[in-house]
């Protein structure tokens, strides 16, 4: 039975590989190459950090293993958290579930298949990032292939254990709280806790490891290093086993943690399957029910109408914005994402504050380059929220399409709806960073004006590209992020950000000449030229995708 | 009121609608019949501007549906074959949304929305998200939305699918009332009894071609005894179903 289900996956994978168009093939190749270089860069970074730490006198090797233990613990908790979230979709909301649950397949088999899927999807990306670390570790310590082999042999139970915990949590949640409102609340809470974990991890300041002088008492520091990180966790077992192998010891000190890891993975997974036997079917049936909640049936004015009251022909825009707001905030998934974004923003600012920058000049330079990072944050959020916003009309798109409003009104509503929060976030990031970095007046003004323009243009690009590549009937809106259109949007956005920074580099250079006291630092012709380039860049980057998207939506015919 | 002239719609190498010429007068209830895949839904989408004709023009109250889109859409209401609505809006909010899109004054909405919900027996559900609605409830919600903005032309794609007998009866009465008030109805249906009882004229489309057009009695060819079903089966070659049954 399980084989039938897995064969189906293999067949659809084979079909989608076989039907790849040249464009898709090229895109995948591009993804692959970019991804490879990113991993390579990560490897170089890990290698340099590890090599640096390893050279610290006396305690170098200790430090390396301490760091490895922390890395594995982080990996473990990330797999737990992501499996917890992914399990919700794979186990309970997959679109093939109604079919599978009706088919004469035992629900245990369905669960096992879906648990494999969950484990895979919740771990592959994290493992991909871990690989350069392990490679760096091996290179720093001159380790043999046996080490990598031992590592690879311990990865499956490690990942299965982590994913099993996440799935057990989700199973229990869905079983205990069949009413969806309670479930939503708990879901939100768990994503909040994920945000908190994330912030805490950052606040634990792992960089302190590299600076023994920061911990006052040397003995205390040594003690800290020698106690393994969370020894009772699978990551602790794994660290011990790896440490043994690194010493060339394949004896008891390797076998013991190794077999504990495998043994407990098997036991925990078996327990999970037993748990699923009792809870999965009931939880699935609960998941079908949507929350019942009576809302007001009043017909009255809404805020958008007041805000846009003075504007001509803004009635349709107002009602579209109102609908957008209602629909957006009723989806708990959005709430939990907002929590995560706020966590991300605080980590971002915290990292800026901790940058070891000695001189005011360096700080100002970083304040300028920070624009690029802020732009990157905005465009990635755009990939998640702005780009899919047209497609979220979904199968109800006909309502607007058949109504006497142009698609450009719809686009404008989507644009305005994302513009406001994005601008708040991006200006907050830039203003706070400038404050932390003590940016001077020129840099502060320049970066503020730039981030305003950038956010405006990036939101326009998001809606524009979203209209060029809409998908109104996909089962899961997150599939859009990894679609061809999402890739094109992201590439265009990054190109735009790069060009913006490039056009501003010259004026910034003039500014620095002034700071350094060079005579006649300002080249006014150059300034005007850069300004003109920026204006043209923004107009084109905004208007071109917008215009193309509008035309595409006007003539859009469903496939 | 509605005028198709020389309309062709191709999807790749498939011609879904083949040179359609058709006029429907004001206040008519026009029934559009045909086997599955004949091109009825495609015609409806061409009429409502969801699809653009490959050739020919579609006019509504003298307005070209492609060129004067907004003006034409203002006069038109649509009940599509699959009543998808926004899952995260309540029934009342959906009506409010449609009302504002079609610029129905707030005072009229305040009065009409509760009335319409009452009429379609949706009142207890008006404050709940549409994602909890059944198919029939969504169908009725879409119908209510169309009555809210009082279109001159109402286009319906199988409006009775999924309605319970009581609602179906109600809807049929509504159609008749609308027609006496001067509203033009263009309706696709598979229920021949409706075509016979309600429609002033019917057209039968087969493989994208309009093969028969006229009042029900004209189609019957004056033979009172024969039923519309027989005429339909004769035209669509459905009388060979005995041959198909042998696969069972
Ligand atoms: N977007 C599309 N792309 C390609 N082909 C289409 C598309 N929409 C419809 N078709 C094809 O056009 C033909 C007519 O389809 P249509 O939906 O109009 O039929 P119908 O008369 O409404 O049928 P039914 O009674 O089943 O609703 C079919 O062969 C269908 O496969
Ligand atoms: Mg149809």
Number of E-type strands of chain B:
10
Oligomer: heterodimer
Q: How many domains is the backbone of chain A divided into?
A: 2
Dominant shape of chain B: globular
How much helical structure, as a percent, in the residues of chain B? Answer: 25-40%
Strand composition percent of chain A: under 5%
CATH 2nd-level architecture of the largest domain in chain B:
3-Layer(aba) Sandwich
Computed over alpha carbons, the radius of gyration of chain B is: 19 Å
CATH class of the largest domain in chain B: Alpha Beta
Radius of gyration of chain A: 27 Å
Measured by DSSP, the beta-strand proportion of chain B falls in 15-25%
Explain this structure.
The complex is a heterodimer of chains A (559) and B (248). Chain A has 559 residues and is mainly alpha-helical. Chain A folds into 2 domains: 1-7 and 47-288, no CATH class; 315-559, no CATH class. Helices cover 78% and strands 0% of the residues of chain A. Chain A has helices spanning 2-18, 22-54, 60-93, 97-102, 107-140, 145-176, 180-203, 218-226, 234-246, 252-288, 303-307, 315-329, 332-354, 360-384, 397-402, 407-436, 441-468, 484-515, 524-554. The longest helix of chain A is centred in the middle third of the chain and has 37 residues, at 252-288. The radius of gyration of chain A is 27 Å and the shape is globular. Chain A starts with a helix and ends in a 5-residue tail after the last helix. In chain A, 33% of the residues are buried. Chain B is an alpha/beta fold and 248 residues long. Chain B folds into 2 domains: 1-75 and 152-215, P-loop containing nucleotide triphosphate hydrolases (Rossmann fold), CATH 3.40.50; 78-150, no CATH class. Chain B contains 10 helices and 10 strands. A 6-stranded mixed β-sheet of chain B has the order 6-7-8-3-9-10, with helices on both faces. In chain B, helix 6 links the parallel strand 7 and strand 8. The chains are: A mainly alpha (559), B alpha/beta (248). The interface between A and B is large, with 37 and 42 residues. Bound molecules: adenosine-5'-triphosphate and magnesium ion (MG). Adenosine-5'-triphosphate is lined by residues 11, 14, 16, 34, 36-42 of chain B.
